[in-house]
What does this fold into?
Amino acid sequence: MATQKITPANLPEKVLWYSLVLTYPIWLIGATYIVAPVMAWVLLIYLLINRHQYFNTTINPYILFWTISILIMLIGLIMGHLLHQLPWLLLIKSSIGWAKGWALIALFMLLAIMPIRAELIYRACCIIAKQTVWLLPLFIMAWLLKLPTHYTSRP
It folds into this structure.
């Protein structure tokens, strides 16, 4: 049986592919917390630039409702900061927190209309599993040596 090589065919697939396949290097440099928000916002920008390709499809009304709700939440966040005369720096920090937290739920649902093949995701998951099997002896050795049980990039 001949196997097909599954490779990313477009930008959304490439962004998702590399963020999945590079899971361990991303973890090693401590960037796992950053990759998902960056990936989501990059894909949203791509979606908005190429909206003529994607907005011909019907978007689930629940996704639209959630997206509108998240935007209302951002307006409430901004108004709360302004009404309580909080510093601008705190508003910026809170908005960034909103963008990498609550907004991601709506973004990932909205990005479901993008042309990403399920087979590509399956293949990326298999590659991650293969990498895990390769790294398993190292992980077991770290456990046997009672090395610290967590890794963080913050001091």
